[in-house]
Amino acid sequence: HAGDLMYDGLVAEWAIRQASLTAVNAPVKIYVPGNHDYYPFHYEGLAASQLRKEAGVIIARPHKPVITLPNHMKMLCVPYVSNLPGWAYNVSDEWLADWLTQATSGHTIDVVVSHAPPKNVLDAIEPLAATTRKQNHVGSRALRWWWDALDTKPLVWICGHIHESYGHEVKDGTHFYNVAQCDEHYEQVNEPVLITL
């Protein structure tokens, strides 16, 4: 799950969202929180314990963001967003760039699951003015800097966050998927995405 499991992020909503993950039948379930997910942001240890015990879910934790998958691939999990003051997991691009460098040191990353997309990849929202034909790209500059600097690019990058950019594109050998299930009106209209690694 690439984030925004919750809507308002309050404690009362957590049990319902946890039950939705419990109902998913999969051998491995990984949840990367997003900016709406205040509960795991504020109660990380408790949320991780509850999800593991009740739903069989591994929650991506910022202090241990690289997970080895059963097929031995390395997955980087990034809950952070930038330029969203007041939201969960909001950090500056400079802080995130440093975190990415430290988190991935010594690892070759095969799969990335981030809440935010990198800049200019499945990150377009509607133009701010009806008179302009240009899209407004709001992805993470730090994620893009990190990806651009890699000698070995990930095979797959999964994100959400930008509801208007649901879809798939390939850049420099990396398959990018925006799997946001809701549209910009928070209506759940997009299909789940199946990716075979």
Give an account of the 3D structure.
The chain has 197 residues and is of the alpha/beta class. The chain is 25% helix and 20% strand. The chain has helices at residues 11-22, 38-42, 44-55, 93-104, 141-149, and strands spanning 29-31, 57-59, 66-68, 74-78, 81-82, 90-91, 111-114, 124-125, 136-137, 156-159, 167-171, 174-178. It has a six-stranded mixed sheet with strand order 3-4-7-10-12-11, with no helix packed on it. Strands 1-2 form a two-stranded parallel ribbon. Helix 1 packs parallel to helix 3 (44-55) and helix 4 runs parallel beside helix 5 (141-149). The protein starts with 10 loop residues before the first helix and ends in a 19-residue tail after the last strand. 36% of the residues are buried. The mean pLDDT is 92.
Query: Element order, helices and strands?
Result: HEHHEEEEEHEEEHEEE
Number of helices: 5
Shape field: globular
Strand order of the largest sheet: 3-4-7-10-12-11
- Low-pLDDT runs of 5+ residues are none
Helix content: 25-40%
Beta-strand residue fraction: 15-25%
Q: Mean pLDDT, rounded to whole units?
A: 92
Quick overview:
The chain is an alpha/beta fold and about 200 residues long. It has helices spanning about 10-20, 40, 45-55, 95-105, 140-150, and strands spanning about 30, 55-60, 65-70, 75-80, 80, 90, 110-115, 125, 135, 155-160, 165-170, 175-180.
Features:
alpha/beta, 20% strand, 197 residues, two-stranded parallel sheet, 25% helix, six-stranded mixed β-sheet
